[in-house]
Amino acid sequence: FMLIFSMFGKEKISEEEIERLKSEDVLTVALSELARSFPRLKNTLIDERDQYLAEKIKLAPGNKVIAIVGAGHVPGIKKEIDKEHDLTALTKIPPASSYLKVLVWGIPLAIVAIIASTFTYSPPCRF
């Protein structure tokens, strides 16, 4: 997370810090924290992607396959490579939730309501 926060700050990150962040232990801790805090997000962003990548690697033509993947996906791909996965189910986009629809319409409506109430209930401005 330090790497993400550093994008917004003026601090420089040394090569040693970058290598430390790339180490498997740091990735494992970060993924464990993500799984604990946001299990559904981890399932969608990491687990389903690992399943998809594992299946695509198995389906790749040739006797030898070189797959370049992010370090965070390697343990999951190793776990999923011997299992069968339905690519159709993994690539299907689920319908948007009703909460998302409420947000999409609710935020602009709230802004319009605030502006309208400002003109309606505030005393007239004089210049």
From TrEMBL:
Q: What is this protein called?
A: TraB family protein
Fetch the InterPro entries from UniProt.
TraB/PrgY/GumN_fam (IPR002816), TraB_PrgY-like (IPR046345)
A Pfam family reported for this protein in Swiss-Prot or TrEMBL: TraB_PrgY_gumN
Question: Which keywords does this Swiss-Prot/TrEMBL entry list?
Answer: Membrane, Transmembrane, Transmembrane helix
Mind telling me which CDD domains this protein's record contains? Answer: TraB_PrgY-like
TM ranges are 102-121
What's the source species for this entry? marine sediment metagenome
